[in-house]
Amino acid sequence: MTDVQPLAPLTPQPAAPVTAPTTSPARTAPGGAEFSRRVVVFLFGIAQGLIVLRILFLLLAAREANALVSAVLNASQVLVAPFEGLFHTSALQAGGSMLDIAAVAALIGWTVVEAIVLAAIGIFRRRTA
Known about the structure:
This protein is about 50% helix and about 5% strand. It is mostly helical. The chain has one domain (about 30-120). β1 (about 90-95) and β2 (about 95-100) form a beta hairpin. α1 (about 30-60) packs across α2 and α1 (about 30-60) packs antiparallel against α3 (about 100-120). The protein is elongated and about 110 Å long. About 10% of the residues are buried.
């Protein structure tokens, strides 16, 4: 038979101390093109929101004497003005409500302009591999 040797008893070894990493995590900020894209989306979003509110207020026959309705209609008039006269009629009326065709055209037009501006900004974006 073979001789079996007993194993030496295990002695616990002290664990190495755990230390926190000394470097702070890297923070990355958006590049110039990304920042520009965000600003463009924000500004066009405000313009599109004003036009949508204009369409809804006129469609629901909101009172123009109300300060909020008046402010939205006046602010959005600047955005809708280039599209007035684009069609034979600027609005369709039924009873007290009115569908502002020029505002619908303005909403579509400004969305197309936004897409063109974003495409132009996209040319200068950095692509990561």
